[in-house]
Specification:
Length: about 220
Amino acid sequence: MEADSVADTLLSGACVLFTLGMFSTGLSDLRHMRMTRRVDNVQFLPFLTTDVNNLSWLSYGILKGDGTLVVVNTVGAVLQTLYILVYLHYCPRKRAVLLQTATLLGVLLLGFGYFWLLVPNIEARLQQLGLFCSVFTISMYLSPLTDLAKVIQTKSTQSLSFSLTIATLLTSASWTLYGFQLRDPYIMVPNLPGILTSFIRLWLFWKYPQEQDRNYQLLQT
């Protein structure tokens, strides 16, 4: 039993460490925005969708009484909100960004209102909220597939981040094991696409090395 407890603690710690490492990759974008005072080449939507995802999983963690989920998604929500505020500060076209933010926050508030007011049974609420979180997470992992198709077309991985790919693989794998350990399909299943897309990215890095891309671009110039 003691060995199982140690294994549980290590797995929980791995989930926290790898996930926060993945969230911290946005610090490079934050540094870029502060140094250049511009938002060029920085995508806003990933910050917003990740923030909504964190807040959703935070609610699930609170309802489930899972400290690992609560800690990870509290820190994640704070970081993503910071990225959003900095982006808004330097973005020249704030109206479109504010509209996107208000729309997703409105959907989030409606969802919270439904789960907390119209679903009085806690077990049913937990299942429905878990299903929502799972579907949202799966959609986030699958959304970059169009970018991967573009990488294959251009035979260039310059648009991909190797460090983020490794962080996503480790994070998805640790949460899959964590969900399997808890026998919670809402945690386990949505992280499987993260493992799959990470391996696809690693294959693309092997197939189209970035050093090769740079040499090709130099020849072209």
